[in-house]
Amino acid sequence: MAQRERREEPKRPPVTIKGVRNRLVFYLDDACAFGDILADLDEKLNGAQARLLSGAQMDVSVYTGSRDLSEWERDEVRRALSRTGSLLVREFVSDRGRRRVTYEPRLVYGPVRAGQVVVHPGDLVVIGDVNPGGLVAAEGDVYVLGALRGIAHAGSSGDREAVIAAADFRPTQIRIADIISEPPEERVPGVAYFEYAYIDGDRVQVDKLWALNGRRPRRRSGEGTRGREEER
After folding, report:
1. Which CATH number fits domain 106-219: 2.160.20.70, 3.40.50.300, 3.30.1060.10, 1.10.3720.10?
2. 133 close to 152: Cβ distance less than 8 angstroms
3. Intra-chain end-to-end CA distance of the chain, in Å
4. Which are the contacts of 149, defined by CB distance < 8 A and separation ≥ 6?
5. What fold, for 15-101?
6. What pairing do the DSSP bridges indicate for beta strands 229-231 and 99-101?
7. pLDDT, tens digit, for every residue of 59-87?
8. Helix 34-46, helix 71-82: angle, nearest 10
9. Among the ranges given (38-42, 71-75, 221-225), the one the predictor scored with the smallest mean pLDDT
10. Cβ contact 115:97 at 8 Å
11. Cis peptide bond N-terminal to 111, omega within 30
12. I want to staple 30 with a disulfide (CB 3.0 to 4.6 A). Which of 65, 114, 127, 172 is the partner?
């Protein structure tokens, strides 16, 4: 009796990309080595699909199957995608309890120079200046422990409670959620103002930083801080 030939099942790629509604979903194979995932990501982001993945900003969900990525691994994936300049990771989702992973605050040492873009899905703290032409963006709050002279975007996923604060508040443009504001009035040269911007109604307002505790006392205790794993 002739022996049937066994057909090998087609090998699944380490990374599969699909468009779902208004975002992209990156499916990571949970059975292959993480190094293979990074290599396949690099090939897709810089190869034939590069033009399709560039252009207008696109939100990204990363589905990891039964694998729970470490914080370092998530940072590596986010860093690879952010290099396109248009892909912003909004969440990591795994099968283990269907958990949605959010982020601890990210600490960045400045200066953030012209042409440099820093994005983070949680709260973002910049120790140093954000120079004209630099951009910092976060789904949570943005804090600049230096001079903010570039562009800052807080609440980038639509959080209107997010704020932008700086030790020297001189931005070229600020944006909170979907509200954009032009620079505040001219400042006295050499005088720094530790202030913060927030949404009041449908306008961005600027106030002295000490007033923030009165507006949002929950932030004092750390409530609302992004960076925990939440059950769906």
Report:
1. 2.160.20.70
2. no
3. 55
4. 129, 130, 131, 132, 134, 168, 170, 171, 172
5. Transcription Regulator spoIIAA (3.30.750)
6. antiparallel
7. 888 999 888 888 888 889 988 888 877 88
8. 10
9. 221-225
10. no
11. yes
12. 65
Q: Are 44 and 36 in contact (CB under 8 A)?
A: no
Rg (the chain; Cα; Å): 21
**Cα 160 to Cα 183: distance, rounded to the nearest angstrom:** 19
Minimum mean pLDDT range among 4-8, 90-94, 116-120, 160-164:
4-8
Nearest CA-CA partner of 146 in 131, 134, 132, 133: 131
pTM for this model (two decimals):
0.54
Amino acid 74 reads R
Residue 188 has pLDDT above 80, yes or no: no
SS3 of the chain: the string is CCCCCCCCCCCCCCEEEEEECCEEEEEECCCCCHHHHHHHHHHHHHCCCCCCCCCCCEEEEEECCCCCCCHHHHHHHHHHHHCCCCEEEEEEECCCCCEEECCCCEEEECCECCCCEEEECCCEEEECCECCCCEEEECCCEEEEEEECCEEEECCCCCCCCCEEEEEECCCEEEECCEEECCCCCCCCCCCCCEEEEEECCEEEEEEHHHHHHHCHHHCCCCCCCCCEEEC
Whole-angstrom distance, CA of residue 61 vs CA of residue 4: 42
Measured between alpha carbons, how far is 16 from 179 in angstroms, rounded to an integer? 34
